[in-house]
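Possible regression after last week's pipeline update?

I re-ran a chain I had predicted before the update to compare outputs. Posting the input and the new output here so someone can diff against the archived version. Not blocking, just want to make sure nothing changed silently.
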Amino acid sequence: MIPVYLFPIKLVTYTAYYIVKFLIKVLLSIIGVFVDTILFPFRSLKNFLKSVFILILVIYMVTSIFVILDYLSNNYGHYSKFFCAIDTKNKLKNSVVRIVGGYSEGSGFFIDGNRIMTNFHVIDGEPAPKVIFADGKFTTPTKIIGNKDADLAILYIVGGYGDIIFDITKDTELYDGEPLLATGYPMGTGIEGAATILEGRFIDFRKQENQGYLQTDITLISGMSGGPLTDKCGNLVGVNTMGVSGMSFFIEASFAEMEIQTMTDQDIKKIDVDPTKSPEDAVRAFYTYLKARRMKDGFGLLSSEYLKNTDFQEWTNRFTDILDVRIYKAEKYQNTTDTAFVKFSTKNWVDGGAELHYYEGTWVTVWEDGKYKMLEADIIEVIKPEWTWFYK
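New output (post-update):
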């Protein structure tokens, strides 16, 4: 009998013995398999042919793995981005919006439920740009801020669009030569249809003064400014900005995020009208309110006589498709004291495309409630005006 106090030692000793014995057997078995594998082809012609076939199969499988990894690297940047790339292009087409103003057009994308990022040059000089969604609906921002030097702006809208948000705070790693996707609306509303996606390769990071850029071999087209640059998984990495043949630059997403804190409305064009000055100023105010879709303000410039034949709902329904109003002339009509002559155009959003219409004529006004109000219109549409019409 072994004393009780020696039992733990015996347990440890026997356990170690059997573990070492098992490992020696495993090692001998591995050596045996290795020796048999080496000797197997030389035991018979049949075995040799089998070995050659197996060797070719193994080489083929190993080579295939390298080919697959190279394909994933070339087409997705990294094999880890293969599965997340499924359906990315459809998501991008449904997520990027048009930005339409009287002087410029571009693209934009949501950075949260009610904020859209774009380039500043897209909305420069435009107090009331329109945001057109992928489904054809459009709205007017309630607020605009930006940084002109950084060429970035943010448009605030009413409503939630949480399913189409690009995470500007996410840090996405890029690999040399990784394919990237630039999404936007080339040629603006001049081209109907869904957003265009251009694919190219990441070249390098660049800096100009204090601004960070991504360089790619994508050729950006006018109208795509302000859209998102993403990897194959749809992760935001930059903002479409400028391009020449075979090369484009995109503001880095991380830089764009930092610039949000510097944005103000200082350089944003403001609406400045005064319907108390004169009939022509009242007419200019009236069409400016239509342009900005400040429908209550525009309705407030209708005289009591005019309102006998309409109400707010009926009147606003006349202008549901107007994207923009551009006033070319608003001046006193001949020797009258209550009438203004006006020339203007409207850009209407109809069935997914923009239509331009040109008008001229007179508005008779009346002084009411401390301002000039619209009393009677004699406006006609001008079909295909000559170039002189815009200047004379």
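Follow-up from reviewer: compared with the archived run. The mean pLDDT is 88. Marking as no regression found.
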